[in-house]
């Protein structure tokens, strides 16, 4: 693997901000970011990336390539929770297995945005329609996880899910709603809207991303202590499963003819794990699962792994496979 790719990624200001946040916790600095601010930054990033995706969709149109890519995204969002569930069941109970499997079947928007920044830094083009894939992959894993719980706990007595609430949480949670809403806004306004919102959606973007990853570094370092409860099995799972998922995504992308930039984003979506939307849904619907397991593995292991090593590693694999 080309070490320069890793160095290039690490020396990206947002990634360095992530390290600074982790360091602040390790050296016991009193650095903290008031809770409403990270939430606001998260909403901003989702809006900006969704709006850009809508504008790019206007340019590219709905082609066979777009449809195949979106179908591949939905397929991976449905299949990843299934096979990861059976791997996790080797060591864990049904509830924790389903919750963690759902977490890894869903996606991390911030990892996707970091990968987009990495591609921009390297000058590798990518298409905006991958934002639509991001939106589509958020929810299916929640539904699959709950179906797995229902099927494998049938003998323990009937579990009563309020499916209307489950579906509402899966498809109308704030991140999905804002992504789809801003995507539609970009579709409707096109290039004119892009020019009008340039100071907001373009000029501010990397500054906000840098500050948001500073907060993510603080959170990840704080969650590291929870890893003592997970054991070696889950730590290895949180590192190896993203690589497996990315490899499967790479093969699918090659088959359907995705360009390299889009393939990296697709691989990153498949390799990432949700630490916001899915944990919120699992707390509501599967209270038997331990949040420290599925939150700490996604946030303290998989997220840092992906933004530091994973993104360059997946690109290296793509360069080999596409050459």
Describe this entry's structure for a reader:
With 323 residues, the chain is an all-alpha fold. The protein has 16 helices and no strands. α5 runs antiparallel to α8 and α12 packs across α16. The longest helix is centred in the C-terminal third of the chain and has 32 residues. It is globular, with a radius of gyration of 19 Å. The model has no long low-confidence stretch (mean pLDDT 87).
Rounded radius of gyration (Å): 19 Å
Can you tell me the residue ranges where pLDDT is under 50 for at least 5 consecutive residues?
A: none
Helical content stands at over 70%
What is the general shape? globular
Structural class of the helix and strand makeup?
mainly alpha
How many strands, which pairing sense, and closed or not: the largest β-sheet?
Answer: none
**Total E-strand runs:** 0
**Number of helical elements:** 16
User: How much β-strand is present in the residues?
Assistant: under 5%
**What is the average of the pLDDT values?**
87
How far the N terminus sits from the C terminus, by CA atoms, comes to: 14 Å
What is the N-to-C order of secondary-structure elements (H for helix, E for strand)?
A: HHHHHHHHHHHHHHHH
